[in-house]
Specification:
The protein has 132 residues and is α+β, with helices and mostly antiparallel strands. 16% of the residues lie in helices and 43% in strands.
Length: 132
């Protein structure tokens, strides 16, 4: 019985890690949405911009992210941006780039299941609320 339980747990975790989560960005100014996916297995995020351009990249732990003067989040207080509801969660950062030079940066907090929330900024100045 324990072997069966362990096998089911292993299969369940493999399925969870391989699944793509839907990602939605909502523009804070006009409410326009951007949709995409995030995958736990390879820690990637892919979005389709309103122009049709695909922006993509990988996310890393916020603690290991290099958020320097070139970042759209340089000197930002991430805890305040996320509403202070960030304890006990994974904190991440993603830099997404597109083939036409579009840049989107995200900071977020997520549960171990891969669901979470955050904030994104585009190089063109737009800010977004992020849910996944």
């Amino acid at each position: 019985m324990a072997t069966l339980r362990g096998a089911l747990l292993t299969l369940g975790m493999a399925w969870l890690l391989g699944c793509a989560q839907e990602v939605r960005l909502v523009n804070l100014t006009d409410g326009a949405t951007i949709e995409g996916t995030s995958t736990l297995w390879d820690q990637s995020v892919t979005l389709t911009m309103p122009s049709g351009e695909i922006v993509e990249g990988h996310y890393v732990s916020l603690a290991s992210a290099n958020i320097g003067p070139d970042s759209l989040f340089y000197r930002a207080t991430v805890g305040q941006m996320l509403g202070g509801h960030v304890s006990g969660r994974f904190h991440g950062y993603a830099l997404l780039t597109g083939q036409n030079g579009t840049i989107v940066e995200m900071v977020f907090a997520s549960e171990w299941t891969g669901h979470g929330f955050g904030v994104a900024r585009a190089g063109s100045g737009e800010e977004y609320r992020v849910t996944f």
